[in-house]
Amino acid sequence: MTTPTAPPASTDPDLSHVGPRDKAEILAQALPYIRKFHGKTMVIKYGGNAMTDPALQADFAEDVVLLKLVGMNPVVVHGGGPQIETALNRLGKKGEFIQGMRVTDEETMEVVE
């Protein structure tokens, strides 16, 4: 049986400017949440707009990996609003929303599926 090891230090240049004091502060703020949610399952919606931006795709994936590394159990459910709207527009159908929630009739559900 092997002993788990810490992931390698990030080589992301955007994090290179974060000093030890700031890293300690970030960790101090995160620890209560890590303790509270350790072993818990978290459902995370990966929205359609985030799916269309490569930078957001990478950031989202890194965040999900981090949650798993600190002992949480992320479950990702996908959105797809922009993609659904594009498909509906091609069919000449307009999406219907009530208070920001999509109303999905039978015809729209066929597109969504």
Walk me through the structure.
By secondary structure, the chain is of the alpha+beta class. Among the domains are: about 40-80, no CATH class; about 80-113, no CATH class. Helices cover about 50% and strands about 15% of the residues. It has helices at about 20-35, 50, 55-70, 80-90, 105-110, and strands spanning about 40-45, 75-80, 95-100, 100-105. The strands form two sheets. Strands 1-2 form a two-stranded parallel ribbon. A two-stranded antiparallel sheet has the order 3-4. The longest helix has 18 residues, at about 20-35. The radius of gyration is 20 Å and the shape is elongated. The mean pLDDT is about 85.
Structural class: alpha+beta
Question: What is the makeup of the main sheet?
Answer: 2 strands, parallel
Low-confidence stretches: none
Taking Cα atoms only, what radius of gyration do you get, to the nearest Å? 20 Å
Distance between the termini: 43 Å
Number of helical stretches of at least 4 residues: 5
Strand percent estimate? 15-25%
Principal-axis shape = elongated
Name the helicity range. Answer: 40-55%
> What order do the helices and strands follow?
HEHHEHEEH
Number of strands: 4
**What order do the strands of the largest sheet run in, or round the barrel if closed?**
1-2
Mean pLDDT value:
83
